[in-house]
Fold this sequence. Notes:
The complex is a heterodimer of chains A (558) and B (435). By secondary structure, chain A is of the alpha/beta class. In chain A, the strands form 7 sheets. In chain A, strands 3-2-1-4-11-12 form a 6-stranded mixed beta sheet, with helices on both faces. In chain A, strands 13, 14, 15, 18, 21 and 22 form a 6-stranded mixed beta sheet that branches. A 5-stranded antiparallel beta sheet of chain A has the order 25-24-23-27-26, covered by helices on one side. The longest helix of chain A has 27 residues, at 369-395. Chain A starts with a strand and ends in a 14-residue tail after the last strand. In chain A, 49% of the residues are buried. Chain B is of the alpha/beta class and 435 residues long. Chain B has 2 domains: 3-334, 3-Layer(aba) Sandwich (Arginase, Chain A); 344-434, no CATH class. Helix content of chain B is 32%, strand content 23%. Chain B is built from 12 helices and 16 strands. In chain B, strand 15 and strand 16 (431-434) form a beta hairpin. The termini of chain B are far apart. At the A-B interface, helix 5, helix 12, strand 26 and strand 27 of A face helix 1, helix 4 and helix 9 of B.
Amino acid sequence: MIVGLDMGGTNIDGVIIEDGNIINTIKKPTNRDDLFGSIWSTLKELLTGYDKTKIDRINLSTTVSTNAIVENKTSSVGMIIQSGPGIANDFLACGDENVFISGYVDHRGNVIEGLNLSEVKNAVKLFKKKNIDSFAVVTKFSTRNPENEIRIKEILENFSPITMGHTVSGKLSFPRRVYTSYLNSAVHSTFNDFAANIKKSMEIEGINALIFILKADGGTMNMNTAEEKPVETILSGPAASFMGITAMLPTDKDAILLDVGGTTTDIFFLADGVPLFEPLGIKIGKYNTLVRAIYSVSIGLGGDSSINIKNGKVKIGPKREGKPYAFGGPQPTPTDAMITLELIGYDHDYKKKAHESMSLLGKELNLSAEDMAKLVLETMGNMIKYKIDKLLEKINSQPVYTIKELLYGKKLEPKLINIIGGPAEVLTPILKDKFNLPCYYPENYHVANAVGAALARPTAEITMHVDTSKKTLSVPELEIYEKVDRNYSLNFAKERALRLIKESAISIGETKDEIDAEIIEENSFNMVRGFYTTGKDIRVKAQIKPGLIHQLGGDNNA
Amino acid sequence: MLKAKNRLGLVFFPAFDWAISPTHPEREERLLYTRDQLFEEGIEDIEGVEFFNPIVADEKDIERVHFCVPDVKSRVTQSHLISAGGAIKALQMILENKVDKSFALTRPPGHHAHRVVYGDRGFCIINIEAVMLERIRQEYGNLRVAIVDTDCHHGDGTQDIFWNDKDTLFISFHQDGRTLYPGTGSIDEFGGPGGYGYNINIPLPPGTGEDGFLYVLDNVVMPILDEYNPDIIINSAGQDNHYTDPITHMNFTAQGYAELNYRLNPHMAVLEGGYSIEGALPYVNLGIILAMAGLDYSNVHEPDYNKEKLRQSRDITEYVKKVCELVYSRWKNKDGLRLKDLGNATHIDRQRQIYYDTDGILENQVQNFKVCKKCSGINTIDSRNDKGYHIFAITIPRDACNSCVDEGHRLYKNTPNSFTNVYLQDRVNDEFYAK
């Protein structure tokens, strides 16, 4: 038995899946002031009547870290930042105290100027004085050479947590590394308190299952990993929906995935069935991060979006002013349009109110209530189409760096649309018409996100860099920095990367024997100094892409 | 988050899968460390900095500028069409008001490519900026443009292409040709009869540093640009004046390049040469990008930067001053010089020997410029090389009068078949003929 729970801003959804079939579901409101309490009571209710000893794993998508960041309820963090020469560094001061220290490492990982220990000691004094005990240490190009970060951490030994920049990602982006490290330390205690509560309550209830936490990239990690890298737990909600759509409507084609809710529509894309990711990482609040995430764009358009007429044009959203008019809300909404056209069935009283709202709107445009309702749904379709066309244009002009990619690189050309959410069924024929593409929706869409959370598997990504003239190999994500032979080749690197990422998947909780690891980037550059080849600069990226523990049984599909 | 004062478009296309040969300076590795530095600095996240992919230039874009012998296909590879396409895209984005400024970081470079192309010289086959400019003029009308070539080598190819064009002011400052490839670029190379005075060379002594370059900029380049008042200023941005460059002998710095771009304030920059790929390019490119975006570049410098050690000698300062005085006075007196140097000639011949160092080809050519009162006049090139080609090429310029257009076509028709190839570039009708 697998249990999946997805905690959203409004609701917590839960499912139990056994042998690929959904055997129980639940939906409960989220109490933002007691997230743990909300989760726990939902879980208890979901499990009532089921044998708790048969639970193999609980997969949890939680907004604990996200909320702490968005609502500014994070711990104070002391930042030690070594920025070296380059862009002026003042915009990096994201901590509660920020100490910029001298010294620096260059792009090849050479230490150009060493640490000034007295600066670090003064920083420690300052943090103590201010009663700060969470830290992050980030140096420019620390992914290439983490020596300074490690030494500073040793000096800070007595404090916890300390996030070192090179451990959050192997990607190059010093500002993002600073922000990501800051956030990781800032949510550390919030998330760890939550984790401790979960573990304690499970023990009391006698549940002895593995717990996994969902990440924004559509994968999971075990609790231990999440406790160390709580920043990886942010913004996992869209990933849960995404995984839910893939579980209910599997495809290996280029596709558009939509989750249309009450307030917003989330848009995702598949390329040959593989999700598109954010190029560097997800943005939360004002912070760009290196947290790997599925590319998702949210627009303020949903079933409950308020409708206005402006300059003779129908304007839907981006705000939700309340419930649909039919249910006593203040403004007409797309849901009212659907009720009016009898596309969703409701009692006479509701229908009357919905009709009234469409008549009122229609008056401004000299349209009958029915025609008005049709126009609203048409407009909704047009808005989705317009946005997606823009996104596709942007995606298909992502920077490339080789002639091969520029001339022959893959362009995303969606062949179908998969859609979930309340208005999914109604929108299906409209989108089919607008995009001239087949459009599908599943029956069980209302628990898709919980199903997505339940069936998600561990994911990982690593960045390997080999410099054979310096004889170094590094994988920052795994804190591997070691010496290699001068003859190290791209093939060695690829094999090693695949081995390492599989080990990494097992360490974060993968149990399957066959792990689907792949190389996603590979480059080998001849390094020439003067007129002689001095070595090779090899770069390899490997990933375990999001996948399902198993397919959902046929009963659950449309 | 950082926000750029000027919206800056970057066409960053390092062509990681292309090299002239595995150990050639123009190889895959060239912009690798630049990419690392730019990405680590977080350039991608600066609000107002936007990345664009190159488009691929057409054969027709090349034929507007060059006479490729025997034809475009035999001389030009995809990498060149993309490099030129990158520059075209960068300028298009400005003219379509998508960005305020742009920088095309593409390779290979182009400023040593002349009008006639038998092969590769100075790592260049086609002239990236010229191909860009003529395509843009075709699409957006006849802009007045100033190209300021800040590469350490004389931009002899760009000079050749715009030699007779007063709507394209070409200013090149470079290490004195008597001490460096390609050897040209003296003060008296002043333009053809149609553009006399609009080709300006400022040869500088080896060892010139920040003070010297900025002196040239403040005392010659900026005053001339103010008077010329172009629609577009392009920095032909070679980065080999840098003190770490392996094939030149100057003392310029990343800080100096950034300051130069801040003061020059070009609409766009196009990468040319520069082969200190580890010690210079990452910092120079960062400096140029920040300066163009209107961001603080005061903290950009190389690992071993030492302002005092790189300061130019007093002799150099004095020498540079004198060069500047001479160049500026010639600019002010260009009409007088024209009368004195060209008199009332009806045709001007220009005889040259051109060596293609990369491909080992020797060319001898005579260019002939007609002096026309109504336009800049048709001109021809009679060229032969040591591989057996003997070609005749005719150009009808953009501003040609009717009689020059007719004369050009007549000349093409009547040119005998004793030449291996005959070409006609009709820039008025945007047509190209070959026989």
